[in-house]
Predict the structure.
Amino acid sequence: MPTTQIQPDLNERIALIFNPHAATNRRRCEELTQLAAGQGIDVEVTTDLDALSRVADRLAARPPAALAVAGGDGTISHAVTAMRQRLGDNIPPLIALPGGSMNMVANSLGMPRIDHAIAALTRNDWNTAERATMQIGSRFGFIFGLGLVTNFLELYYAGTTTGPRRAAAVTAKVVGSALVGGQTARQAFRRTAGHLRVDGDHHQRPWTVVLAMTIANFGIGFRPAWRAETAVDRFHLLATDLHAAGMVRHLDYIRRGRPWPERARMIDAHAREAIFRPAEAPLIYTIDGDLYQSDDELHFAAAAPTTFLIPRLPV
């Protein structure tokens, strides 16, 4: 769904939730917070979820005209969740500043690099974009996954670094291992058995992957959910029980965001809601790169869309 050019009046207050532990922010914390404060932006540094909860209470009592969030994808999810739990669907427009390691949400929106974006916040010159938003249990986010997605994240987080280079290295290792039937591939493609219901259609399999997205960018050039941004009231869900070698053979479909051939046994749905009931507990799943677990069935559905603002840089 394309962005549009509008001029929302943001001469009123802009607040900034700043996660100092996010990858980019950690290296440039003082520089970036001073840059924002110097423009009259209300900077709220949140060191943990308790701090974020207190900040959300204050912001809900006096909502800003726009809320900037500087952190990774998980920080954006936590911020959206905290504000929706307090304000319902009436949260301020969001500005997703790429302060993390992968920044899938910010990159999908075409956000400029974080220092340039912060410097442009008070220019009141914006593009705007609406993105479908999923409610997963009590949380809100833009990417949900289990199976291959969570197995990959466990391998990714096991290293000493994060970011696109680390993700590319893990991807290469998984693909290489799949070609020879290695241990890394067995770990990455470990299946999750369960019952999946998508808009009333029932499916029971040992799942290699279940992925639902409302943004197109999955990092390092992969765009598996080609319909993710085509509607604000649905998410694009992909699920299959294809084995490791078969997944690797279809890697180009994942990278380019193309419809899979029928032989791949892919469930491809532009859905409003889904329920996953695991055969065994706990169920490990991810929302926007953070890992969670559940001992019960998991319901995820399209919630009200989120409005994002993208600052337009001077030419």
